[in-house]
């Protein structure tokens, strides 16, 4: 199995990383091919983390007797002794987490040529936390490689950007994502194409839409709820409905993961299924529950943002219909509804609604209460759209 298999539409980035890993295997340390600090950027769903793990496996598999495939399996499972990963489901990465990772980066590799440190969602570090990482990037041990992942270079402080080599990922083509869903997940071609299109080439979301009929139904219900807004009163009710849909979507994502984590934690603590947890071990489960609550908060915010991204795609379709511009529509499953809205409203009104959605996303990112931000956004839908 190729390390880079399934990384759709990223041939240029793969070529850069593959060349760097190959040069490191040959003992080359030229800056043009291999460096000790990398930043992988790309839009949501482009596969930043996946390509980071593939690169890590390529580096860790350059020495020793292990096969490339076995190293990759260890890397994906995060069990390789020379790999350290920092990922979070919370809103921000804490300074203590980064300090712990920086301390472990000083260890020498045990079985491979490198020690690889991966930080997913490096954009979730505040400036004070970023400065802790900066010191490690300025003077890394000779056999330590840092791989950071973020949506864009602008999401990191300038001093970190100046010390990393950037590799930019592109948005995969819809057809490529659909083909990946068919090949990897066995999804029917029509469902795969619809999921890839509605997810706007976000690989993770496309997988969820393709394999979960309830997720597809919740998405369509959110769009039709907004299309049916006629008055300000409708807008307030719709805001509550969207919030409930976001909560249901977030719960569907987190509940199964929470149960698996708790079962794994109990097993590692030696507690039989259904058994009583000894008082001395309860603090560890309490810490796990706190982490899961923080993840649920982040998951809810992500769910609300997904709905607003879907709404932007909806009004983009309406705008294209109104001005007769070329381009394939995203929401073909409700094309009759969006065409009806396009016919009874104007392009300036649609643009005003899209501005309102973008403003709501910024407000929620700034910690405005989601219910208030959604109400303000949907009131603008009622007023600007004249019933859209």
From TrEMBL:
InterPro entries named among the record's database cross-references: DNA_Rep/Repair_Clamp_Loader, P-loop_NTPase
GO biological process assignments: DNA-templated DNA replication
Annotated signal sequence range: none
One Pfam match: DNA_pol3_delta2
Protein name, as recorded: DNA polymerase III delta prime subunit
Species whose genome carries this gene: Salinibacterium amurskyense
